[in-house]
Amino acid sequence: xxxxxxxxxxxxxxxxxxxxLGEVSESIVTPxxxxxxxxxxxxxxxxAENASAKAVAYCHASGVATLADDSxxxxxxxxxxxxxxxxxxxxxxxxxxxxxEAVAGEEDRRARMVCWLALAVPGSGPDGTPRAxxxxxxxxxxxxxxxxxxxxxxGFGYDPIFLLPSGVTTAELxxxxxxxVSHRGRAVAHALxxxxxxxxxxxxxxxxx
Length: 209
Ligand code: IMP
Fold this sequence. Notes:
Blueprint: E1 4-6, H1 11-20, E2 28-29, H2 47-62, E3 66-75, E4 81-82, H3 96-102, E5 110-124, E6 130-146, E7 162-163, H4 175-181, H5 183-200
Helix pairs in contact: 4-5
The site of inosinic acid (IMP) has 16 residues, from strand 3.
């Protein structure tokens, strides 16, 4: 089976991907395992562009098919921000307490979590000459609301303040239940058939564009 480079050093994301990818996770290699230390900026206004930039940079550097993720939380009371800037929100960046402070007293608590995945596949011409990686995109969204205070010990990032319609935060759910409904779970479900096909063998890898 071929390898799939997972272009993230976020431990919370790595753990989720390992669960969500099922048997495909046996093919995963991490940037650390390949000795790759890339600092890819995320300057774009869309998740898709940021995820693509990351996937292409890692794919180019490694020659290995690469899956990258860009995700964020979107809050109605913040004009659906911070969105693509979620990791940099507040002074310390990505801090749930600072997000709660920013919406303190707001009645409209609607929020959603968004995930975009970019799969970069190494390209080669008919004569084997390298070509730019080709990118395929998958996305997932979960609608919910902001809690008024942190609840739950599970998950990571904004999970303790993201309320599902059932009234629990994603940090209060067992991992398997978060996976079944989360933005990342949904995006991975869309990507899995393609990943299985890609990793099944060279003929399916699509390296003959
Ligand atoms: P990025 O995709 O690494 O740019 O992360 C965006 C921000 O959203 C970071 O602060 C993450 O911690 C947060 N985040 C991403 N995915 C999740 C999730 O599944 N639950 C809670 N927070 C998340």
